[in-house]
Structures
1.
Amino acid sequence: MGIFKMPSLGADMDAGTLMEWKVKEGDKVSKDQVIAEVESNKGVIEVEVFEEGVIDKLLVKPGTTCKVGTPIALIRGENETSQSLEKELEALSGGEKEEAAAETSEKEPGTPKTKKTEPATEAKVSKSTAEEVKISPAARKRARELGVDLDALAAKAKGKIGTAEVEAAAASNEKKRGGSDSMRQAIAAAMSRSNAEIPHYYLSASINLTPALKWLETQNRKRSIKDRILPAALMIRAVVKALQAVPELNGFWKEDALQISEEINPGVAIAKRTGGLVTPALLNAQAMDLDGTMKAFHDLITRTRTGKLRSSEINRQTIVITNLGDLGVERVYGVIYPPQVALVGIGKIVDAPWVVGDALAVRKVVQVTLAGDHRATDGRTGALFLDKLDQLLQKPEEL
Amino acid sequence: MTKDDIKQKIIEAIYEIAPEHEGDTIPDNENIQRSLDIDSFDFLSLLTALNDTLGVEVPESDYGEVDTLQKMTDYFSEHMA
């Protein structure tokens, strides 16, 4: 395993604040275990390790902001010793290490950063302040979303804290961190790169959703409200199945070659209520049935908007699905997120004229688009995908 | 529970789902999803929350009857009786 560095949680991140260690020195860790929480412009992310080992040394203290790539922990693998890890660390460019160390010590006296950010993740308010200052449930929720420290705010505020106060506090924090600005810049960088490098092709198909929606309605009638399946989840499930049939669209363009991914991790574009857009991945969606997909989708949206995402969900997407139907958009012409090679766009489900035999009928129709990377695949591949998707949606009971 | 109480419960549930609207007046006769930027996921969460507080499950086939605050209030008051 060796030196564990501050991970990049998306192309738009250049630094992150270590909020909390979930492990201590000497702990054994296994693959995919969450070892730390890091705050970035995407909120608080749970960071996982990729291999098993033993935590040899934690190099930074909670509250420390470090650049992506800064060593933050030493993890001893099978053939490693503390000594060999120390050496490896020293061998790393000295400048980098000093920089990290400097930042640590800078934050240490009084640890204002730690105090400020740590309780924010859980929106804890100590009893004494809660009694003096009334905080509305909405404000509490908002504070959790925006990462505002209610303790600090309650200490300053008198009477009542509403969402307005929380937002004002968040806005001033944001300025300090450059939160949404940096998110914007990152999207800008990725999209500029996409448009400069990727020769996109676009395909669109009208799909009759009446059979699928009728089937879903019957299913949902039998279910309690908590277990209802949204058409959006049905679409994701169908896209995943179609990708299994046409795997060339699920992967990456790296070193002038297409690398097909076995895992299907669709990034689902989710708007945050605080503004900004995140596309966290539904990991290993190929292994889920429709119920599993809905559950995972529900969980992912909830955590995107209110809680915590995991590092693997931020950087393991193999394709993106953008659904803008709720906003009335009929057709989505997407821009591929490099190094991915395709983006599926889903529009609004509309009542439209549809030819049935030799008559005209009204059906629920959706426009599904595919943006493909022409270096990796040809229009024919995209056409096969859309055709397969159509076929699958005509037999929803098999999804 | 009076109609006003029901309306208040609905408004509270909306604030909970879309906290950025807290304190705002929710228009009676405008489409809730469109005027408050609530997507289908949030709308389902809203109905789930109302099922918990008011004990009425809105079937999908009745979504058209609960798309504004006023209609939603009427619907719940009818079905709670």
2.
Amino acid sequence: MTSALVAHQITVHYDRQRVLDRVDLRIAAGETVGLRGPSGSGKSTLARVLALLHAPDGGHVALDGQRLAGVRHRLPAAVRTRVAILFQSPRAATDPRLTLAELIAEPLRATGTPREAARARARELADLVGLTPDLLARRPHAVSDGQLQRACLARALVHRPGYLLCDEATAMLDASTQAHLAAVVTDYQRQHGAGVLLVSHDAALLTRWATRVVELPAGGRPTG
Amino acid sequence: MTDLALPARLRRPLFRPGIVLASVVLVAAVAACLAAPLLWPLDESAVDLARTRLAPSWAHLAGTDDLGRDVAHRSLYGLRVSLLVGAVAALVAAGIGGLVGTVAATCGGRVDRALMRVVDTIAALPHLLLGIFIVAMLRPSLAAVILSIGLTHWLSTARIVRSELLSLRTRPFVDAAVAGGASRTRVLTRHLLPHVLPRIALATTLMVPHAVWHETALSFLGLGLPPHLASLGNMINDGQRSLLTGAWWASLVPGLLLVAVTLALAALTGRWRDRLDPRVRAELHL
Amino acid sequence: MTTTAPATTTGARAGRAPALLDVEGLTVRFRLRDAVVHAVTDLRLTVHPGELLAVVGESGCGKSVLAHALLGLLPGNATVTGQARLHPPAGNPVDLLGCGERRLAREVRGRALGLVPQSPATALTPVRTGRRLLVETLRAYGHPRRDADPAADRLAVEVGLDPADLDRYPHELSGGMAQRLVTALALAPDPPLLLADEPTTGLDRPLVDHTLDLLRRRCDTGAAVLLITHDLAAARRVADTIAVMYASRIVEHRPAGALFDAPVHPYSAGLLDALPDRAFRPVPGHPPMLTDLPPGCAFAPRCERATDTCRTAPAPALPGPGRAACHHPLGAPA
């Protein structure tokens, strides 16, 4: 069995426009792949396909050597939770009704962990990503973007995923928060041997953080 | 301004003269309905043929009708019945609409198309006519009137719920829930419906004045509540016969009460809609 | 990444022309039910014609509130004190904080002081196309009807928007396109001072650079820009002067080149060290809540150089090549 998250010949159309054309991408356990490309080159779409959220029009995704049929709820929760995704806007990615503590614990509660155990794990993860306990009782509107993205990272790590996909996850954050989140992800990766995909337009960030960088040209096929 | 998120309630004045007036009218009307049995210990339908068509006076604030019943007394009972019918009918309509909208949005495909065609078809028919048809099929009774209103007023709720669910479903926080392992049911009950419930509640309250009017219209046409029951519609209908004899108060008093209470309800629910609707909110407070 | 900041010319400009904007002791507080938010504290800054001043800082440090305070767009629970004098080249000087809503609306907003808002999606009227919005704006500011249309096209091209996209409604635009449209709307009245609040949110790199260069060109032709951003790379690319904001205060306010080469305030140094092309090391600790600022220097709890002196507030940072708001500035003995 190979430990990798692999996109095979992925093709995606929106309406009649082809966004991705037979794209191959492989994220092996333990490596950090940078993905860059111009606006409209389908970087985010590729990340959503790899996160098992968007069904490609052609090609398939393989997780640890197993070819996956279908996306979203067609896959068992145990498969879905192997891949986590972090979006650019933490505000869009969080349910405004939940407190940060509930937000982080939600994936555990959704898969049947008892309330107290989930709460405890949420506190542990909040500490890991640098959220102070007094913030956990707040709702998203009462915290800053940086604090909310920290909570999103904690939520993404709650199931100990084998793969973490960051879709411009630090583009809206200040340099210090970005560096801190990068350090948290790198630590997690080292401990659990996770594979990481970094979608970013920031050349300096990719050079510093990624182990290799793949270029996705507009509507075309990747090189690198 | 996302740098500092402020509670939305701090950004606007809570009270405006119109809203205060509407609140006072509504509170007074409801209080009077509740206090009616204390003010008049007698049966509101008690006939007193010795005192027919008396003009308003201190003994009978709104006069008496052609059967000698006190109009003020009876109007309050009528309002009570009308509000009750309106509220229950609005709840029935919201329930049907919420269910249809949710089923259409979650099942999608053929189910969605079929349900939405049903909605379009019913919406194409005049709803008072449809309501009359439904009551005519059943025997005139409280339940028949409620059912008639409920079955004709759920369309907008169904449309709202369906479109809200469809647009919420594409939001990244739902993606995050799916990726986190949430089942279909959990996504629906924990992440989607809680956002739609305030909209359903809002649609329900906006519907109450409509439902009250609808009940009144049915009763006025003699298809609503049984004639011996005091309802605003029945009273206006009874009163119109007295108009020719000069007893204008028998119709006017229940009519004014209906207008005042439904306007107050509409004003208050409209205000609530402004506070809930993010688009209006954005325009008011950016 | 190139450093284009002409740090040496700023001083010369500052000496030659009177300040376009002169902010003195600006303080903004928000009353909440159970707390007071210290959003901006005793802030001083000046902007000269031709200058691009970047205010940088973490989200939640109060930098966005600064822009809204200058425009008189704060919610009702805010109290604003201090002075902010605007000297438009054509027209009378005006105190933005004291002149009242009427004068702000008639003479200042848009005309003398433009705003590129942070969230374009909520800033656009949903029922009008981009072209109508742009033409209306041009006409409202005295552009003749005849050539409003071509002028709208020119503005679109200037901000990097295809003129054909002007005929779309706001909901048909992507986030980046909406951002460029609000930039064009802010540029339409050609204000001498433009406030740009995170104008590059949602744009990809080439468009970020395009927008930044556009702001730079405006300054090169004599207008001024106050750029509010979390993005240090953006500030480095275009700013003449940089004001670093931390916990409601400006802690360092210096020419961009000097700041990037040798920051004086430990927080500025920490922020620069966090850049991926430098140490990529976060500033330790957490920023304080604006409802609960420590007495004295707000950065002291996170600062390696902090001593007992830091329990008293340092003197505010002065505009120009002055001091940082720090008892133990870098470059001086600790």
